[in-house]
Amino acid sequence: MNRSVWKIRFLRLVIRIQKLFRKNAVFMVLFFLFNYTTLAWSLVNADKIEVMIGYGFSLFLGVTFVTALLQIFRNPLLKNIMKIVLVVGSGIPFMIEFVAMYNYKALIGAGIVNSLLETNSREALEFCNMYFGAAEIIGVVFLIGLFAAIKKYKLISRLHFSRRVQRKIIFGILGVSLVYTVRMLVVYTDFFYSEPLLPMQRAYASAEVAYKNMEAYHTLTSKLNTDIAITENKSKIRNIVFILGESTNRNHMHLYGYNVPNTPNLDALKAKNELSVFTDCVSPHSTTIAVLSKLFTFCDYESDKDWYEYNNLIDVMNAAGYKTFWLSNQESSGVWGNVAQIYAEHSTKHEFTRIRDSREDYGIVDGELFPLVDRAVQEKADKNFYVIHLMGGHGLYYNRFPYSFSKFTKDDIKLNIPNEKKEVIAQYDNALYYNDYIVSGIIDKFRDDETIVIYVPDHSEAIYDETGGFTGHIEENPTRQMIEIPVIMWASDKFKANYPDKWAQIQAAVNKPYMTDDMIHTVLEIADIKTPEFDPTKSIIDEKFDATRKRIFGGKDYDAEIKTGKVQEE
């Protein structure tokens, strides 16, 4: 075959490609934007500019390929129907995700889908009123008008370029797109294969997870014991505030003797004798869901029934006449959030800083809880029980504090370890420095009322301490760093004046050994509420408290095995 024949064939290919772009310009632009905008936005926020650019060119190549495939439909009507299906199918998830990015700085996830699936028409209207104002409506109308004008007046196809310039532009973009696609597949393989790239993919995957979350939640809810019996109710305390922390290692708090001054506010409260700082408390597990199944129920390691067969603290407080609040900066649904969601749903009022699933982490700092607390205080009743669920020291640590709280650096970490590990420790110390600000800030909001504040993290966190280069928490083969937690109580002047004996009981108990699977007994004793399950030997402030009770974690004795390090030696 001679050279002129190849030239003619190539020219026909060029003409066909030019025709493809000219006749399908609006479809290609819409399909590209719907599948590119939100992910590109998230990549810009994450400072992944190169990935954003590479994905754009790769997607352009993909859109071109899809458009070429549509040409196999010879029937124009069928071809247009397929285009509409693709545009609408990607446009609807795009619009949902665009709202999520605009309001939450997050791609669509199971948490958002969960909320949409469980939202009734009234809540949907409230959602729209909250997040769609005049600016959003004008923006939507403008975009619709713009695309309508492009379609009607064929603005793209009317761009006056010579055929030669058109060919250069088209093949230039296609050539660059091909190069970038190969580079992305080689250099950023995980980006292409580990996460869904298109809004419709994310919507489908999120819907699948959300459905499973809802199914699990409803299964647990149906099993939860809500048959509350109150045998004694002398409760009069106006405000009981339970701050539920997250992944907080007391050995990394200056309040407990750590050498980095990361708890200045709590230190000051202790110096003024306003705090009762419990020195020997451990969590029953090192994962949130396992802890929550015991922390707020009468279930402990000695129990012979599943946790949901026991009464829980929220329902008991409701039955005792308290208005209950669940205010959370954690996930609103998901495999780790279902237990917390049950407690939240059983509360008189519950509110989350963001709609998100367990697998999603947008780096929302705990300071965003303050407006929720302020609103709850405005809605208070005669007796109120607040649970305020923090993100605390949850990894990733650098997501847990704003830049203004970046106080400590690797130079402040006096350990003989590599600098990159010192950086991680410094980030964690900054997270606890911010946590100190949050906890003391919540205390200040209740200072002028009759209030007792109880601060208990779910579990602790290992930070390159005794773990051979490990950070985080696991249930298997635990170290003491994963379960040694701070427990702190603060009382207002009005509380101390009205309940001096109770405050004296609390102060006298600070050095007793305690595991927080029995925390419900302590809270009920503070509140002067008794149920058939209440056991004074499991309340740390009671004179009958059993300080000899073994603290068993995963079948291992904390004092004899975990604390001494014998578990790791084995």
Offer a concise description of the structure:
With 570 residues, the chain is of the alpha/beta class. It contains 21 helices and 14 strands. Mean pLDDT is 83; it is low at 119-123.
Helix and strand topology:
Layout lengths: L2 H21 L1 H21 L3 H22 L5 H29 L5 H8 L3 H11 L2 H20 L9 H25 L1 H6 L4 H25 L8 E2 L5 E7 L18 H8 L3 E8 L5 H8 L17 H7 L3 E6 L9 H9 L2 E4 L17 H9 L5 E6 L29 H27 L5 E7 L4 E2 L7 E2 L11 E8 L1 H6 L1 H9 L5 E2 L3 H9 L1 E2 L21 E2 L2 E2 H5 L3 H4 L1
Parallel strand pairs: 2-6, 2-7, 3-11, 4-5, 4-6
Antiparallel strand pairs: 1-12, 3-10, 7-10, 8-9, 13-14
Helix pairs in contact: 1-8, 2-3, 2-4, 3-8, 4-10, 5-10, 10-14
GO biological process, one term: lipopolysaccharide core region biosynthetic process
GO cellular component, one term: plasma membrane
InterPro entries: Alkaline_phosphatase_core_sf, PEA_transf_C, PEA_transferase, Sulfatase_N
